[in-house]
Design a protein that fits this description.
DUF8198; FFLEE_fam; 13 helices; mainly alpha; DUF8198 domain-containing protein
């Protein structure tokens, strides 16, 4: 089986999301994503402000939690599948697995936030400005607790993989060698998605520690929401 086969399944899941065919859901999804990013920036302001963490914080907010160009990234991944046999010769297997994990997390974030967006459309006026109480009640109503915790577990696994597989000289050399081909065949957005990850890791002693510090706080928020805390954020 192709090392890139998992990406095919992820793309199928992504293109089945409702917002692709419904502009109203798409607009509300963008509201939810904007609220999420503002909330995370506030919640993790101390961690994100540390000099060595700035790039990784930006990667989290703009890549793993609903980047604005994810549709374009998905299109490039779909085209890559046509060249899978060539790509697999250039990209180390562990790099493929780690990159796939990053894409999977980005899609899962959109999937969960779309559920929130659709519930908000049922319960509130579509142009009502989101606030913490609306989001708290919506999270409770959807009962996403286990799904959100699973998301954090996968994020922890990604942090481990980044340290174990993506810091090697061989992987980084192979990645740099792909730059020309990425530009030639118009895979620039996909290359930048991975490049940003490499650059974000560089100042860190441990990507795994950064991720675990982040997920520990996020787990506390999830537990507070589902315990009925009126101010979980």
């Amino acid at each position: 089986m192709s090392k890139l086969a998992a990406l095919d399944d992820l793309l199928e899941l992504y293109y089945q999301l409702n917002y692709h065919q419904n502009p109203e859901i798409f607009r509300r999804l963008q509201d939810v994503q904007a609220w999420q990013k503002q909330r995370m920036q506030a919640t993790h302001s101390k961690q994100f402000a540390e000099k060595q963490n700035v790039l990784m914080a930006e990667y989290f907010l703009n890549r793993l939690y609903g980047g604005p160009d994810f549709d374009a990234l998905a299109e490039q991944i779909a085209r890559l599948m046509k060249y899978a046999h060539k790509a697999e010769k250039l990209i180390p297997e562990n790099a493929v697995k780690t990159g796939t994990s990053g894409v999977s997390l980005a899609i899962l974030a959109v999937q969960l936030d779309e559920q929130v967006a659709m519930q908000l459309l049922e319960d509130y006026h579509p142009h009502e400005t989101l606030n913490d109480e609306m989001m708290r009640l919506t999270y409770l109503k959807l009962d996403q607790g286990q799904s959100r915790l699973r998301q954090l577990d996968l994020l922890d696994q990604l942090g481990f993989s980044l340290d174990k597989y993506m810091r090697s000289f061989m992987v980084q050399t192979a990645f740099k060698m792909c730059k020309g081909a990425a530009s030639k065949y118009n895979f620039d957005i996909m290359y930048e998605f991975m490049q940003d990850g490499f650059l974000a890791m560089k100042p860190l002693k441990s990507a795994e520690k950064f991720v675990k510090d982040f997920t520990a706080v996020e787990r506390q928020i999830i537990h507070k929401v589902h315990a009925g805390d009126p101010h979980p954020f």
